[in-house]
């Protein structure tokens, strides 16, 4: 199959930048017309419509028979790629058709996709283009997209991460479901949160219509790390009959990525949007984020969940103004009752006697769930290697290490570091 850009044509090698993009797009349009005897137009160039590309890529991976390969863009470059599939009993490599440098079309729908490789200075970038035979064809295709993506998102978690090159997204299959009973939390708080969620995602929305309450909610989960905030968020994503998106705030979060995430949430609503480490929001975009939350339609149909390990660093405006985060729930260090529940669910009895288990519950005051898990791993390792467990030494060591991490004093008097 002849490529759009061939080395036989010397003019193809002389253009760069925007003129090169224009030349390639024209070549794609000509190829689509000659292949299907229909005139196509460009509808988007590098606009952020992740849902279009997510489902197109899924169809490409699954060899959807409605999707046809039209042409390679640059001769001698990639036609195929490969991935490592870690799911299933036997992880394997899979060869697939390459997304970049190729033109694909849904012939019956009159829609085509292309990722065009362009040199930007010393960097190779991909320009994403979507083509259609008419506005009506584009509208009909988009109508099918929302329903498919909503169903897809119910079985997968949509992950957004802000990186140096902008907002990245991926779908992660829900392989290990976190059930509601797996969440260790004070009963009254746990019950209140789940009742709120179930009410929000009722199909008839009768509660909100009866009491004329805006169809949007926001809760903030705060407290020291390792005490179940993320576990609760995963359980919500896995057990509520609605799509869920997880957004990791980083130093690269920008006003552009904030706008993109909320535009996505609006298109998929009703949806759960989990914002992890909200205290990490860069100072330069906090005002934009707050203004986005205040927008009249920015949260319509969105159940917003924010998490933070450092509530003291949260902008007071997030909690002190209605319509942003409506409620805050503290995830404190587990009390004795919750520690006992965790110890029994973790099956400490495989390693320890009943007396030792009672000692774990009593002497682990101040431990988070994550630290209790580490204690279990340490006990298992010692039992496996030595055939016995020195429980009190392990607890003492963990308390000493935790104290050092809080004070920042890692050096011992004998000159050794705290971990040895």
UniProtKB/TrEMBL annotation:
GO molecular function: ATP binding; ATP hydrolysis activity; ATP-dependent peptidase activity
A single GO BP: proteolysis
InterPro entries cross-referenced by the UniProt entry: AAA+_ATPase, ATPase_AAA_core, P-loop_NTPase
Stored Pfam families: AAA
Domain AAA+ ATPase: 215-335
Protein name as it appears in the record: AAA+ type ATPase domain-containing protein
Organism: Shouchella lehensis G1
């Amino acid at each position: 199959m002849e490529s759009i850009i061939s080395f036989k044509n010397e003019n193809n090698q002389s253009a760069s930048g925007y003129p090169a993009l224009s030349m390639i797009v024209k070549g794609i349009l000509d190829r689509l017309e000659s292949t299907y005897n229909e005139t196509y137009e460009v509808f988007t160039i590098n606009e952020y419509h992740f849902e279009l590309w997510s489902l197109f890529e899924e169809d490409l991976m699954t060899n959807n028979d409605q999707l046809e390969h039209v042409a390679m863009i640059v001769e001698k470059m990639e036609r195929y790629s490969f991935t490592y599939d870690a799911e299933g009993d036997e992880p394997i490599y899979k060869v697939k058709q390459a997304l970049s440098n190729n033109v694909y079309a849904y012939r019956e729908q009159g829609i085509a996709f292309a990722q065009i490789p362009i040199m930007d200075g010393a960097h190779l970038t991909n320009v994403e283009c979507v083509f259609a035979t008419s506005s009506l064809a584009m509208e009909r295709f988009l109508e099918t997209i929302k329903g498919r993506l909503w169903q897809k998102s119910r079985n997968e978690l949509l992950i957004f991460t802000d990186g140096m090159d902008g907002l990245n997204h991926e779908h992660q299959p829900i392989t290990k479901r976190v059930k509601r009973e797996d969440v260790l939390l004070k009963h009254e708080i746990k019950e209140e949160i789940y009742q709120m969620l179930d009410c929000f995602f009722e199909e008839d929305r009768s509660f909100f219509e009866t009491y004329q309450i805006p169809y949007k909610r926001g809760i903030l989960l705060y407290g020291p790390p390792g005490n179940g905030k993320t576990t609760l968020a995963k359980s919500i994503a896995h057990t509520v009959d609605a799509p869920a998106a997880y957004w990791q705030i980083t130093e690269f979060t920008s006003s552009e990525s904030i706008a993109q995430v909320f535009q996505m949430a609006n298109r998929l609503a009703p949806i759960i949007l989990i914002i992890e480490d909200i205290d990490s929001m860069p100072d330069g975009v906090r005002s934009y984020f707050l203004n986005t939350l205040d927008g009249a339609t920015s949260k319509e149909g969105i159940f917003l969940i924010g998490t933070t390990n450092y509530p003291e660093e949260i902008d007071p405006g997030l909690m002190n103004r209605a319509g942003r985060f409506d409620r805050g729930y503290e995830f404190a260090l587990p009390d004795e009752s919750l520690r006992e529940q965790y110890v029994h669910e973790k099956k400490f009895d495989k390693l320890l006697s009943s007396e030792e288990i009672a000692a774990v519950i009593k002497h682990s005051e101040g431990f988070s769930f994550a630290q209790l898990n580490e204690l279990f791993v340490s006990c298992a390792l010692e039992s496996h290697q030595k055939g016995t467990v020195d429980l009190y030494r392990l607890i003492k060591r963990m308390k000493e290490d935790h104290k050092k991490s809080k004070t920042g004093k890692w050096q011992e008097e004998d000159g050794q570091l705290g971990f040895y």
